[in-house]
Structures are given as structure tokens and as C-alpha cells.
Amino acid sequence: xxxxxxxxxxxxxxxxxxxxxxxxxxxxxxxxxxxxxxxxxxxxxxxxxxxxxxxxxxxxxxxxxxxxxxxxxxxxxxxxxxxxxxxxxxxxxxxxxxxxxxxxxxxxxxxxxxxxxxxxxxxxxxxxxxxxxxxxxxxxxxxxxxxxxxxxxxxxxxxxxxxxxxxxxxxxxxxxxxxxxxxxxxxxxxxxxxxxxxxxxxxxxxxxxxxxxxxxxxxxxxxxxxxxxxxxxxxxxxxxxxxxxxxxxxxxxxxxxxxxxxxxxxxxxxxxxxxxxxxxxxxxxxxxxxxxxxxxxxxxxxxxxxxxxxxxxxxxxxxxxxxxxxxxxxxxxxxxxxxxxxxxxxxx
Length: 348
What we know:
The protein contains 14 helices and nine strands. It is an alpha/beta fold. The strands form two sheets. It has a seven-stranded parallel sheet. Strands 2-3 form a two-stranded antiparallel ribbon.
């Protein structure tokens, strides 16, 4: 296990630290030349993802290059439905989709009997490989998508970005949608438990699409299924730190207060200082620099880092991150400069 005094774990425990920890969503990815080389070697993304030796290397690449305070497992949020038989596909320029999606409520019955963790050995092997390399020097973050986010991708055919099919189910098939979310909560909980058993130090849930839900359904479709996942995990691993990325949460911030999480990660549309005032020291916060800042000059990057950090009256319980993932065409030198800026700013 990582040292109990490392900045990332200190922040999650709401303890003061010598510097503010920083890691970045999608820190392992296409903006790195070494990633592109491994991706070319693999031939396609799914082969890269499902070949533990290569996935270990990709997880470690940003840790070797930058002074980051945590590693995040190289994986994908859609591994569970892929392991349930929906067959994940990637269309160039279009994003992910499933060859066998959920087209109607009758498809849900067979999902309850699935055991996706039996088909995800490559994930456990990748975790073991990463842990053997970092030897406790960096905490390792494992993750999954939230039930609602998975449902958005699983319902309807072909690559899509608006998730209209899932939103229609709110009113067409509310009982069946609730059933699907409960099934997914069980599978996600088991998935995270297996990740923790394999060695991850922190479990993170990405609720990437909760923000598209109408306010009348946010609690039932975003918050409560997440609670089911976390309760399932903490029944087995009560001490594991948990992070929720609640993209698009907006004015619904109060709804996460009683979730069993250690840290709330926020997108760039949210004011961190106002969130701290609202939630107090009940949760650590993570975020939330606009990832487009990385297209700016070093002067602009430094300015934006300074502004965000200075907006926080107290940096205890704060993890610096982006409000979303690094974009693939960003200059990796700007990423390194950003990380150095964070550490310099918070040390001073």
C-alpha cells in the first residue's frame, strides 16, 4: 500500500499535505507519443485494452513522464456491458457503441443472469502488473461508469451522443429502466470489489451523463443507483476511499451530501469555492480546470492554475484535476508544465 503520508491519500482523508496532489483524467492517452506507439503496436484500442502487458505499460507511461500523485488504471468505462455480451465496438470519428444493444425491455431479463466479472480477467491481470511495477510508490485508482451512464450507452442502436433512447425510457419503460439500473448497480459493485481485491487503492465512479437527466429523475436514476453501488462495495471494503465524478450536477449538489463517498469530482462548469461553502469539509473536492486551458500559452496555463487554486480558501481536502479528460491533440509539454505549476503554486 502507498505510504499513509502521500498527498493524494492525505487529501482523500481531509488531512493537510505539503503539496496539493494532482492527477489528470485521461492522463494515459493519445496526447503522449509513447501511447501512440503502443497503440500502433496493438493494432486497435480493444486489443490494447485487453492485453494486460500493454495496458500496464500505458498506465505507467504518464507516471514515468510527469510528477503525478496517482496512477489511474488504463481501462474503459464500457468493459462491463462488453463482458455481458453486448460486444463493444468503436467507429472511427463516431465513438463507442454496442453490436448487440438493448433494443426493448425484453432484452433486460438475460442481463440479470450475467456474471461479467467472470470475463474480466484481463482487468485483474493489468492491476496486478501495475502494482508490481509501482511497488506502493503511487496509489492506483480503479474505476467504473455509474449505472445511468452505462445505461445511456447500452440502450439504443449505433454510435450516439445525445442518448435520446435512454431518456425516452424514463417515460416509456420506467419500471424496466429501474430494473436495469439495479442490475447494473450489482454488477458495477462486484466489478469494483474485484478491482480492490486485485490491488487498487481508490475506487472512482464516473457519472458522466447524469447531467442530462431532468431534475425529476436525477435522484432516482443518478444518485440512488450510485448509492447501491457504493453500499455494495463498502459492505466488503468499508475503508476503501471512493470518488464520484458528477458531471453536470449543477444546482443538485446537495443530493450527494449523504452518499458514502470520500471525494466529489466536478466538471469545469462548477465553482469550487462555492461548492466548498455549500458542502463544508464533509467531502474532499477534485477538479476542475477547463481542459481547453492546455491549448494556451505557458503564461495562460500558469494564470489559470493560480486563479483556480487561489479561489480555494483552504487547500486541505483538495485534489487538482481537470473538469474532464485531456484532449488527444494537446501538446504533452503543456501537460507537464501544468503539473509543475500546481506543485509550485501549492508549495508556495
